[in-house]
Design a protein that fits this description.
It comes from Dyadobacter psychrophilus. By secondary structure, this protein is mainly alpha-helical. The chain has helices at about 1-10, 15-40, 50-60, 65-85, 110-115, 125-140, 145-150, 180-190, 215-225, 235-250, 255-260, 265-270, 270-285, and strands at about 155-160, 165, 175. It has a 3-stranded antiparallel beta sheet with strand order 1-2-3, with no helix packed on it. The chain starts with a helix and ends with a helix.
């Protein structure tokens, strides 16, 4: 049944590769637990106490509550699928409750640090330097996800209109505006990108192959290390930075939601906490009785 469920995610829900891998990992771990602890081969035959026993075992192993909550969510989605298919009559996950977790504010880079990053002497003028700058400016200048960046194609660009077409989670399409400077940078990059390369993928490695996630992560880490001491130096930090800077400069929260491709406003509202924290610091520094 796990295989059928994964196929459902792939072909009907059109979930991302990362999401599918997470579900596969969680359900494989659960299946192994059932086999070891209860000699039960079929997850669809598991009873509610068995599910709770697995969650308790994860807690006893010291697993992070947020990771456990992800596994609980995987079970809920899986058994919800089984119930819709009439494989099970009752949903055994109803007895499970999410664990309390500490809310972490999104890490972001300060505006002054981003200005330092894009100083003229940071990047070289050859293909590699312009390509690296394009990666950094696309992530910061459009807020797109890592997976969205590596899948961008040349025909997704509309440089005269200063927009890019992005395919987000579940292949949901959105159009994101970009600045004139970023559009000009993309013109420069395309002029250096070998036109005879047998791929439409926009961002290429030095050898002309499509970039891959680890390549982008290393590139981002390399350049962010020069301007910030944040422990996290990932493409997603640049996405957080994009959203936080927009909000700090007065952008409407609903507009940011559309730009980021969030399904609902709740996912976007976390950025308001960063703005509130900034206001608190300003108040503490400036008010006589703070």
């Amino acid at each position: 049944m796990i295989t059928l469920f994964i196929d459902f995610l792939k072909f009907e829900k059109r979930a991302s590769v990362h999401t599918i891998k997470s579900y596969q990992t969680d359900l494989d771990q659960f299946q192994k637990y059932l086999l070891f602890q209860y000699e039960l081969e079929k997850p669809q035959e598991a009873k509610a106490p068995m599910l709770r026993s697995w969650v308790v075992s994860l807690m006893e192993e010291g697993m992070n509550p947020s990771s456990i909550n992800r596994k609980i969510a995987s079970l809920r989605t899986f058994y919800g699928f089984l119930k819709r298919k009439n494989v099970v009559s009752q949903d055994p996950t109803k007895i499970l409750s999410a664990l309390k977790t500490r809310k972490k504010l999104p890490a972001f880079v300060e505006e002054k640090s981003m200005e330092m990053l894009f100083l003229p002497d940071t990047f070289t003028d050859d293909f590699e330097g312009v390509r690296d700058r394009t990666i950094m400016e696309l992530l910061y200048g459009s807020g797109i996800r890592l997976a969205e960046l590596v899948s961008l194609e040349i025909n997704d660009l509309n440089l005269p209109a200063r927009t890019i077409r992005v395919f987000g989670k579940r292949s949901k399409e959105r159009v994101v505006p970009i600045s004139t400077s970023l559009a000009n940078l993309l013109f420069q990059y395309l002029a250096l990108r070998a036109p005879e390369e047998d791929t439409n993928i926009l961002i290429l490695t030095n050898s002309g192959k499509a970039v891959y996630p680890v390549f982008v992560q290393r590139t981002v880490g390399k350049y962010l290390s020069a301007v910030t001491t944040l422990s996290q130096k990932s493409p997603h930090v640049l996405r957080h930075t994009y959203a936080t800077h927009l909000l700090n400069r007065g952008a409407d929260l609903n507009a940011i939601k559309e730009l980021l491709g969030h399904a609902n406003l709740a996912a976007t509202q976390i950025y308001t906490h960063n703005s509130i924290e900034k206001l608190k610091k300003t108040h503490q520094q400036a008010h006589p009785k703070a």
